[in-house]
Amino acid sequence: MQVPFLDLRQQYQPLAAQIEDRVLRVLRSGQYVLGPEVEEFEHRAAEYLGVKEAVAVSSGTDALLMALMALGIGPGDEVLVPDFSFIATAMVILRVGATPILVDVDPATLTIDPARAAQKVTGRTRAIIPVHLYGQMADMEAILEMAQAAKLWVIEDAAQAFGAEDARGRKAGTLGTVGCFSFYPTKNLGSAGEAGLIVTNDPDLAQRLRIIRNQGQQRRYESVTLGGNFRMDALQAAVLNVKLSYLDGWNQERQRLAAHYRALLERANLLRSTNAPLRLPVVRHQHSNATFPHIYHQFIIFAKDRDQLQQFLRQYGIGTEVYYPLPFHRQPCFRQRALDPVSSFPVADAAAATVLALPIYPGLSSQAQEYVVEKIAAFYYG
Ligand SMILES: *Cc1c(COP(=O)(O)O)cnc(C)c1O
Predict the structure, then answer these.
(1) Looking at ligand 1, which atom is closest to the CA of residue 62?
(2) Dist CA 241 CA 37 (whole Å)
(3) Which of 37, 116, 119 is nearest to 83 (CA)?
(4) For residue 132, which atom of ligand 1 is closest to its CA?
(5) pLDDT means per 10 residues in the chain (382 residues)?
(6) Which residue, judged by its Cα, is nearest atom 5 of ligand 1?
(7) Backbone angles phi, psi at 49, to 5 degrees
């Protein structure tokens, strides 16, 4: 049996006719950048998330970069970020000339530790970027409280969490100053190329973001501020307009697949028993009224002898990934830029050495899941 880490064709096939219809319509329309297809997506995304403004952009990275630009963050400013995330979360801070202040993560969820973040606030701190890692929200209640006390902007990196909710059912990306999303093809809601989104409840900020998106132009050929080409293609919006209607169903299926993995791992004695070789992250809002406490962008295990396990599974045709092997404080590109010589990051270091992402995507069969867990058990127990 082969269980690829991800197979995007499986998601495409049942939607092929609808997507191809819409894509053809765009190709024949002659309107390829922004325009009605993109506006439709902005309206539908804002409605789905329950937020006033949505600005469709070129990627998740650009969404984060634009948020910093629109908030006027630059040289001399400090921005708090978790030490453990995709590199873009911290790199954008350096790109605007500000200083990333790395904060270790909470061992239960690997999201930013709000108490540690509060300890790193100085007179120069302007913002915090919580990351809703793997598909569940960071501890927004504590983050919003510390941010309010310290007068910080909150820029949510919700690239892995479109549709995830807190205990009160509020969507990821809608609680901070701005929320940033990515529609890279492998995300839960994926385009057929590069695309992203910024949302906010502040209409003035949304207006600034729209100006920044288009070379700082308020009117044609009059640039009132620095901007860039951060526009979304109509073809990407066409794909997203079809897929958005299916997202809740897919996220529900991911939650079901995760519950099945958990049950199988328990039955195989891989969790909980004394000296169990695996541990799972905690789902913070598991027992709340939220419909989507965790949308399982990734299903993560903490695994003993992780690298050997990954190699073993590969021999049996099972694809896995390590998100992420290097915490930010060990990234060569950050040396002497973000490094804070007095801090250590034991939780991020331990996570980097033990996390492993198992295959999870709509359409994954329960036989495939059983095969994966059977092989994990074979690795540890023979
Ligand atoms: C994917 C991702 C990004 C970047 O999004 P792109 O669309 O690839 O630029 C940023 N942060 C996190 C946490 C991500 O997973």
Answers:
(1) 9
(2) 8
(3) 116
(4) 13
(5) 94 96 98 98 98 98 98 97 98 96 97 97 98 98 98 98 96 98 98 98 98 96 96 98 98 98 97 91 91 98 98 98 96 74 88 98 97 98 94
(6) 60
(7) -80, -20
